[in-house]
């Protein structure tokens, strides 16, 4: 579980929610302690988030002048600064729950000078829930995983088909506009 969390922070597309859910399923089967997984997972996420913040803090204004920063553009940087001032810790809390936004948000929080204590409080509290909820779901449903998959049976193909059609409709709508 910790390895999956570390890989996710290193831009390998591994969702941390899946790692926690797998850990919860293993705990439900008696393989691991649920409390130990929760504490280790939360602490790992907290350390990784602080690492991303530190990268941004170290890069500082150099990030804005980098090749990627120049592609973002001055207007967007100004907007990001205003957003960080308005939303601050709440933006960090929200990013903890939205996959794909964590890394850039936490790096930007450091680069834009969010106080370390405020950042730590935001990710610490949000991490309690972002770690606990998927871990608990994995624990509750993990003991019955085979039964759940068997019950889904052909329904999973129906759900995949619905998701595919929804994606095509969304894509077509975007192509028209």
Describe the fold and architecture.
Helices cover 83% and strands 0% of the residues. The protein has helices at 2-9, 16-28, 34-59, 61-65, 67-72, 74-87, 89-96, 102-111, 116-142, 145-152, 155-176. It starts with a helix and ends with a helix. The model has no long low-confidence stretch (mean pLDDT 82). The protein folds into 2 domains: 2-143, no CATH class; 152-177. α3 crosses α8. The protein contains 11 helices and no strands. It has 177 residues and is mainly alpha-helical.
On the 0-100 scale, what is the average pLDDT?
A: 82
Q: Based on DSSP secondary structure assignment, what is the total number of beta strands? A: 0
How far is the first residue's CA from the last residue's CA?
42 Å
Provide the structure class: mainly alpha
The Cα radius of gyration reads: 19 Å
Strand content: under 5%
Largest sheet: none
Overall shape: flat
Can you tell me the residue ranges where pLDDT is under 50 for at least 5 consecutive residues? none
How do the strands and helices of this protein lay out in sequence?
Elements: H1 2-9, H2 16-28, H3 34-59, H4 61-65, H5 67-72, H6 74-87, H7 89-96, H8 102-111, H9 116-142, H10 145-152, H11 155-176
Could you list some keywords that capture this structure?
177 residues, mainly alpha, 2 domains
Give a concise summary:
The protein has 177 residues and is mostly helical. The protein folds into two domains: 2-143, no CATH class; 152-177. It contains eleven helices and no strands.
